[in-house]
Design goal:
Layout (H helix, E strand, L loop, with lengths): L1 H4 L9 E11 L2 E11 L6 E11 L10 E6 L9 E8 L3
Length: 91
């Protein structure tokens, strides 16, 4: 029964790593996540980009910062992610 008492719980929430491209909204950042995929027929490596709106409670992240965002409940029409951690600051 000691294992149940520990605070370690497995989270099924997705996490993404990306770069902040906009922080002009109040408590919201736009994070661009780049992933690489292989073309099914020609096997060429392709870059795919997607932008996520994330909740930044303290307005900590600035443009150019590398961040980790985590999936959360819907906070608004576009926001389904929240800022989890800032990995590195922009120069």
């Amino acid at each position: 029964m000691e294992n149940i008492a520990t605070k370690e719980t497995k989270s099924n929430r997705k996490e993404r790593t990306g770069v902040v491209v906009s922080d002009c909204q109040e408590k919201t950042i736009v994070v661009e996540v780049t992933r690489t995929t292989s073309h099914k027929l020609y096997k060429k490596v392709l870059k795919r980009k997607k932008r996520y709106h994330a909740h930044d409670e303290n307005n900590e992240a600035k443009v150019g910062d590398k961040v980790i965002i985590a999936e959360t409940r819907p906070l608004s029409k576009l926001k389904r992610w929240r800022l989890k951690e800032i990995i590195s600051r922009a120069q």
